[in-house]
Amino acid sequence: MADVVRAHVWVQGRVQAVGFRVFVESAARKLTLTGWVRNVGYDVVEAIAEGERANVEALIEQMKHGPRGARVDEARVECEEVTGEFEEFGVKRSA
User: Fold this and answer.
1) Which residues pair with 9 in a beta bridge?
2) Which of 21, 29, 38, 71 is catalytic?
3) How confident is the model at residue 46 (pLDDT cuts 50, 70, 90)?
């Protein structure tokens, strides 16, 4: 069985109005991850991703760079217990 992990990620910087959430959603779906992404305030994007360790790590690396036009000044990652609560990866309403 694959090594399944859960990461809670926050990135801060120029991450609004640059397609960051759609970028994260698309990348996560390609990596067959489950979870969600949302805006928090005006300069933070938050995401939770569950899946195979290598794929979660790949998503984190992509989030540290973001789409064209984005600028990530800070990224914070916390490992959490896998819950298996998600069926797919989607965009949540802003916090």
Assistant:
1) 47, 77
2) 21
3) very high
Q: How many angstroms separate the CA atoms of 70 and 57, rounded?
A: 20
Q: How many domains does the chain have?
A: 1
Q: Is 53 noted as a catalytic residue in this protein?
A: no
Residue 93 belongs to some domain of the structure: no
pTM of full prediction above 0.90: yes
Cα distances (angstroms) measured from residue 15 to each of 1, 6, 19, 31, 90:
35, 22, 8, 21, 17
Neighbours of 40 (CB within 10 A): 13
Range of the domain at 17: 4-85
Is residue 21 part of the annotated active site? The answer reads yes
Asked, for residue 76, whether it belongs to a domain, the answer is: yes
Q: Which of 38, 39, 71, 76 is catalytic?
A: 39
- Sign of the C-alpha dihedral, residues 79, 9, 82, 27? negative
